[in-house]
Fold this protein.
Amino acid sequence: IIDYVSALDDERILVTLSNNQFGVTDTLVCLGIDGVEKWRYTANGYRFLKGAITNGSQIAVSGSVQGGDNPLSKVFYLDSKGKMLWEKEISNIPRFLSMSEDGDLYLVSYSSGMGQMLSGIFAYNQKGDMNWKIYYDYSIPMPLYISQNEVMFIASNRETYALFYLQRTDGKLVRSLEI
């Protein structure tokens, strides 16, 4: 099943092929504009939950392995030729990825244990080092928007929606606005 398609650049697209089930390996394929396969990437046993994102130079995709009560999730960071540069294990289910022009990666994850909403935001640099992480008692239903100095997202709990603006460098709250 073709799950997601995104443009790598003017001459290549990324296609996420899914088996649509846990325990079976999904595939990320790079195709030229002529339809010829340039490369493919698989992560053994991982189901890619969303499509790949890219800034034209780097690519990121996240996936999960369903392992009973302890699902395992990872984010995979590739160069534009499909070579894995780094991978990181994450504790929650990955929901959204965002990437800056300079290759910084922001992952939004979600956990709903015991009826409590909990979203995590993880910020990584191009080398895979974690810059910061933060958790909110909100659901974050979208990828982060990235500006030069801040990231922004909309979040909701059972009572309200709010806009949050965080510093890109350390994740500290700049401002929030209830909407």
In short: The chain has no helices and 17 strands.
